[in-house]
Amino acid sequence: MIEIGFFYLFAGMAVFAALGVILSANTMYSAMWLILCFFNASGLFFLLDAEFLGIVLILIYVGAVMVLFMFVVMMLEVNQAQKREGWLNYLPVGGMIALILFVELVAASTSGIFSTGEMAMASHLGAEVNNTVEIGKILYTEYLLGFEIAAIILLVALVGAIVLTLRERKDAKYQDISKQVKVRKEDRLRKVSM
Amino acid sequence: MNLLDMALQVIIWAVEIVAVVLPLALAVAYTTYAERRIIGWMQVRQGCNRVGPWGLFQPLADGLKMFMKETIIPARSNKFLFVAAPVLSLMPAFLAYAVVPFGETSLFGHELHVMAIADLNVGILYVMAISSLAIYGILMAGWASNSKYALIGAIRATSQMISYEIAMGFSIVCVLILAGSLSLTDIVHAQAGGILHWYFIPLFPMFIVYFISGAAETNRSPFDLPEGEAELVAGFFVEYSGMWFAVFALAEYAAMILIALMTSILFMGGWNPPFEFLSFIPGTVWLLMKTSFFIFVFIWFRATFPRYRYDQLMRLGWKVFLPLAMGWVAVIGIFTYTPVLSDFIGFWQPWR
After folding, report:
1. 0.90 surpassed by pTM
2. How much is the pLDDT for A131?
3. Under an 8 A CB cutoff, do B125 and A64 touch?
């Protein structure tokens, strides 16, 4: 009973916040709405006993990804009036994407795989079942290969991003910290007898 | 569960929350007092000693003064976010205390009851997730003030917090490998049995990394570049005055106390006494003693070290702490699964 109430609260707030993301004129507000949306999505994970996923959603998306979003938004001087301009031009493409997504979602949800009710109505396991432990076990045994491949892809992306943005400047001055630490008094000071 | 039970549960929760938040607010107020007195002592001067005996009422006087001051909202600022930013920074600082276990008590029945508002089994992740939200208050403050100093301060704070969070996360991973659990209570239980079982012994470099990253994470000196008054006036809260300014200070001190608490829980055995014969002193007292010590060390840092330069700060985070922490994770992992070495490290791993 309470659970259903919370489900509607989180789900409703998530949809509301998602609307806020696309409807607010100020980009900063959009980012804030998106954060609220993530929080509600993580609330849904908590209702499904997936506390690990819920926390990780906040930790990664709110704690790291959104901060970088904000960073970019803060740096850009987005003209609010200009943003609305020419939205009619984008309507066909955007509408197409929305339509395709809508059809896909309806098709998936009416296909019978997700509508058996077993998933949503699954009873809660006991407190001794720790899904963090279970995720760890399954990730590092059964899905080890996939996990490692994902890690390597991320690493390559990381290195690629650095390679793309790294500009070596010949005129920049660098400091060698170990050299600085190793400096002794004798290297810098010279006693002069007067 | 009928309505009466629910009402009772709500009352219990409310009492628990008040029992944590009130002492916390007091602790924050008196940490500022301690800071001024200790730094005064270290710099061979008096510190605040006028209001009340030994200046003990100084925090109250400060609070009253802040409260009476006018709150100025800059005309060109974003008013809503400007007002919301201090609240956004205070909220996560206090929210994180929800999972901190302050000890165990047998007051409520025969079983030992953990003194935490919520004894989550992913407690450590929760603390990390919530404390990373503190960035938003700072970011909002910097952006909404519509001032270049505030913006630069906010950007510095953000990049600093993101950089040091990673090293912090890896040092926590080492603790998790040893304790075999994400629950703060289990981590403390894993360190039971005297000072030799505490994790600062096998994880000494990580203990240092965690504590120093904690100082950087909470913008404490010598990593207080976001508020570097020499070049940024006061950093991200340059436009704030009166009570809203005090809220930022409150959040900073609450975060600092949290780092001190977490360091004691993760590395210094939490509420376990160092020697068995000292166990007549309640566990909570031990935890708070360790916490106070770490708060003292934070203040000591402030009185001792000059502020880091920005590139030095980034170098320390990315080129020193991160490789060190990742290397130590590998060392602990190899020790755990190599036949002979695992006997050695098994001493600290009760899950074996």
Report:
1. no
2. 78
3. no
The answer to whether A58 faces chain B, any CB pair under 8 Å, is yes
Measured between beta carbons, the chain A residues lying within 8 angstroms of B81 are 28
Mutate to test the interface with A, among B114, B139, B314 (most CBs of A within 10 A): B139
Pick the CATH number of A1-78 from 1.20.120.1200, 1.10.3210.10, 3.30.420.40, 1.10.1740.10: 1.20.120.1200
Taking the CA atoms of residue B341, residue B344, residue B349 and residue B352 in that order, the dihedral angle to the nearest 10 degrees is: 60
Domain residue ranges of chain B, discontinuous segments joined by +: 1-68, 69-348
Task: For residues B295 and B288, give the distance between their C-alpha atoms in angstroms, rounded to a whole number.
Answer: 10
Q: How confident is the model at residue B16 (pLDDT cuts 50, 70, 90)?
A: confident
DSSP structure string for B168-231? HHHHHHHHHHHH--S-HHHHHHHT-SSGGGSTTTTTHHHHHHHHHHHHHHTT-TTS-GGG-HHH
Residues B191-241: tens digit of each pLDDT:
888 888 888 888 889 999 999 999 888 888 788 877 766 677 777 777 787
Cα A151 to Cα A96: distance, rounded to the nearest angstrom: 34
Nearest to B81 among A28, A71, A130 (CB): A28
Calpha distance A120→B118 (Å, rounded): 26
Residues on chain B touching A74 (C-beta within 8 angstroms): 139, 142-143, 151, 154-155
- Whether the CB of A135 is below 8 Å from some CB of chain B: the reply is no
Put simply, the answer to whether B136 touches A59 (Cβ < 8 Å) is no
Nearest to B132 among A28, A63, A177 (CB): A63
CA distance A190 to chain B (A): 27
Q: Is the pLDDT of residue A118 over 60?
A: no
Q: Quick check: A119 pLDDT over 60? A: no
Per-domain boundaries in chain A? 1-78, 129-167
